[in-house]
Design goal:
The chain has three helices and nine strands. The chain is of the alpha+beta class. Strands 1, 2, 5, 6, 7, 8 and 9 form a seven-stranded antiparallel β-sheet that branches.
């Protein structure tokens, strides 16, 4: 009997429950995260005209999709206010002094805040052991979804919100 040589070394499937996320500037959000989406990456193309048809060849620029995470709200809105304050500090909708909040703030680890923050998504194995780290560089929020209060629900469905982030780039690294 011949050995199968193209069988993968690890045949365990990736679980959607096996992740951790850490964004230094939002410790409360980190605790209440329910969903994280690893962004899409797409490669552009170049069209070359010919007398017969347009030829499409691989481009040379990558387009990174938005990073989204969903979290549950706590009763004190602590997690929501972390993102809300970050957004209003960047956009200062009422006065320039709102930007001062951003400049004067420190994160949970005592470092000065900026518009940007780095983040790490840790992907776990089926045994819940860290396997990969996805490191996001210069992340910043661009949108926070509606907060939907609804008295017609028959069950208690805790409120969740989704935050959309832009970032410079992300790298995936295997943890040894």
């Amino acid at each position: 009997m011949a050995l199968i040589t193209d069988q993968p070394a690890n045949i365990n499937f990736l679980s959607p429950l096996g992740f951790r996320f850490k964004l230094a500037r939002t410790p409360s959000v980190n605790f209440f995260i329910t969903n994280v989406k690893l962004p899409a990456i797409s490669l552009g193309m170049v069209e070359i005209p010919t007398p017969f048809k347009m030829l499409e060849i691989a481009g040379n620029k990558l387009d990174y999709g938005d990073f989204e995470l969903t979290f549950r709200l706590d009763e004190d809105l602590t997690s929501y206010l972390e993102i809300y304050t970050w957004l209003t500090s960047i956009g200062f909708p009422e006065s320039f002094e709102q930007y001062q909040v951003l400049k004067n703030a420190s994160n949970a680890y005592g470092s000065k805040q900026t518009v940007y923050s780095d983040a790490t998504l840790t992907i776990l194995t089926s045994d819940l052991v860290p396997n990969f780290e996805v490191n996001f560089t210069n992340l910043y929020p661009t949108n926070i979804s509606d907060v939907d209060f609804n008295v017609t629900d028959t069950d208690v469905n805790y409120i969740t919100v989704t935050v959309t982030f832009k970032y410079q780039i992300y790298h995936i690294n295997k943890i040894q």
